[in-house]
Specification:
single chain, alpha/beta, Rossmann fold, UDP-N-acetylmuramoyl-L-alanine:D-glutamate ligase, 2 domains, 11-stranded mixed β-sheet, 22 helices, 18 strands, binds ligand NAX, binds potassium ion, isomerase, potassium, metal-binding, nucleotide-binding
Length: 490
């Protein structure tokens, strides 16, 4: 499991560790890891040109000490100081001792000369280190720092963010205005939520974690399943299993207008571990024609026979009665697409069995009564808010899919899925995900596990199916067994 902790938790852990170590030891650990990662990235340190963007806090200190290490190995290192009088004194002295230089400053030389010099240095650099601000960040990048981020983002040089890209909110991944676009982020002690959640994740590039010896508590703010975690959660039929023991998933989806949504949801459900798939709705002929193993019924969810979990909503049009019948069932329910619009909040809140809602950003925005951009800007807050309002587990689809448990509060970790690919942004892909995830619910996974395992397999299947080319949703469904095998084989 990859875990990320909030700034507050990191600060507490750092204080505890610092109290037991000599002054500055932690920063030296960070700088040593940072310099090593930079050396790996540039390949040849000797003779390389390195520019340090240095803010007024310890993040700048890390950059300066790492710069000193690179200068000792023969790099030409120059620091661009945002606030010379408040620069980390020990770090700056170390850089000077190692032969590093300092660029003209805003304060002494004026803004035009400062920006010209910075632009010139960044243009000619092989490597730019972003030490403008780290976990001490408050609000959008300040006006004096923002132009440096813009220059670095356009640079031909490799850009390494120290701890996290400046301009990305450490706790949420939100980006308001300019931010550093890094090729690599070297982060210390633990991942920060902003490195795992979009838009921040996109700015971070690849992420390398440097262990500085922090001990962190049990509950993370954000966690991301890895292959081994998913492998442990996948349902495996025992010797005694029959189709009913493996779980029956009911799919109430599709309409005369959208029969394809029913077919695609069933295609996902058949590959999700349940022993049987029961389809209820007006698209039975289309479903049977494609998947003869499906049990079909046109009698409505209440009379359809026993299931261990329901999926309701994909392509459902305006059939509010199917949604209401499913919500009245005493088994886990996944609500997607049209079902989200048709589900009554009180009916969802009043349920005893687990409910999993799977909106994309537009659907989440409609449920929250805000603009879609607002959800995309603040994905972590949005998923928590929705989970709190509905008292349900919420899976917010997107480039980083998030899954929040029914509490909605900051106390429980939000799961983030990183296997997604932009090729998955294709019609019907969400229907496959809802069928797959409903199947995992029927097989006995909790709503949070089913959501995060479903998103993981779906993303991986999307990658395997696409392999760099466009694919349709049915290709993604067909690749689910490949993804499952890939996870199991590790
Ligand atoms: N505390 C520790 O034990 C360790 C800290 N380390 C480093 O120290 C960093 C935290 O250091 P600090 O607490 O000094 O904080 P930072 O250096 O992250 O940021 C604080 C400084 O940035 C300025 N600032 C805040 N928001 C800004 C914005 N939006 N735009 C521009 N400037 C802004 C503040 O005025 C302040 O001077 C970590 O991210 C990490 O890089 C590492 O050396 C490991 C050990
Ligand atoms: K930084």
């Amino acid at each position: 499991m990859r875990t990320a902790y909030s700034v507050e938790t990191v600060r507490t852990a750092e204080r505890e560790l610092m109290a037991r170590l000599p002054d500055g030891a932690l920063m030296q650990r960070a700088a040593a890891g940072l310099a090593a990662a930079c050396a790996d990235l540039v390949g040849r340190v000797y003779g390389s040109r390195v520019v340090l963007l240095v803010g007024s806090g310890d993040n700048g200190g890390d950059a300066l000490y790492a710069g000193a290490r690179l200068a000792r190995r023969g790099a030409g290192v120059t620091a661009v100081l945002l606030a010379p009088e408040r620069t980390h004194a020990g770090g700056l002295a170390a850089l000077r001792r190692a032969g590093g230089g300092v660029a003209p400053s805003r304060q002494a030389d004026g803004i035009p000369a400062f920006l010209r010099a910075a632009a010139d240095l960044i243009d000619r650099a092989d490597l730019v280190l972003d030490g403008i601000v780290g976990i001490g960040a408050k609000g959008p990048l300040r006006p004096d720092a923002a132009p440096l981020a813009a220059l670095a983002s356009r640079a031909r040089a490799a850009v390494v963010a120290v701890d996290l890209p400046s301009g990305v909110d450490p706790d949420t991944g939100e980006v308001d205005g300019e931010a550093i676009r890094a090729d690599l982020t070297v982060t210390f002690g633990t991942h920060k939520p902003g490195l795992l959640v979009d838009p921040g994740r996109e700015y971070a590039g690849s992420v390398r974690l440097v262990d500085i010896g922090l001990s962190l508590p049990g509950e993370a703010a954000v966690e991301a399943l890895q292959h081994a975690d998913v492998a442990r959660l996948l349902p495996v039929p025992g010797a005694e299993s029959d189709k009913y023991r493996r779980g029956v998933v009911g799919i109430a989806a599709g309409s005369a207008r959208y029969p394809g949504a029913a077919v695609l949801a069933v295609s996902g459900a058949l590959r999700g571990g349940a022993g049987a798939v029961r389809y209820v709705g007006p698209a039975a002929d289309a479903v049977i024609a494609r998947f003869p193993e499906t049990l079909v019924s046109d009698r409505g969810p209440r009379k359809a026979g026993r299931v261990q979990a329901w999926v309701v909503g994909p392509g459902a049009g305006d059939d509010a009665s199917a949604v209401a019948e499913v919500l009245a069932a005493d088994v886990p329910v996944l609500i997607d697409a049209d079902g989200l619009r048709l589900a009554d909040v009180d009916a969802v809140r009043g349920r005893d069995a687990p409910t999993l809602m799977t909106p994309h950003a537009g659907e989440a925005a409609a449920l929250l009564g805000v603009a879609r951009e607002e959800v995309e800007r603040a994905r972590l807050d949005s998923v928590r808010e929705l989970a709190g309002r509905y008292g349900a587990t919420v899976l917010l689809k997107g480039s980083t899919t998030l899954v929040a448990g029914p509490g909605g509060g900051a106390a429980a970790a939000v799961r983030v899925n990183a296997t997604g690919t932009s090729w998955l942004a294709t019609a019907g892909s969400g229907d496959v995900l809802s069928g797959l995830t409903g199947s995992l619910l029927a097989a006995g996974l909790s709503a949070v596990d089913a959501g995060s395992v479903g998103a993981y397999l779906h993303g991986l299947a999307g990658r395997l199916a696409a392999d760099g080319a466009p694919v349709g949703a049915h290709d993604v469904a067909a690749a689910l067994p490949l993804a499952w095998r890939d996870v199991v084989r590790g």
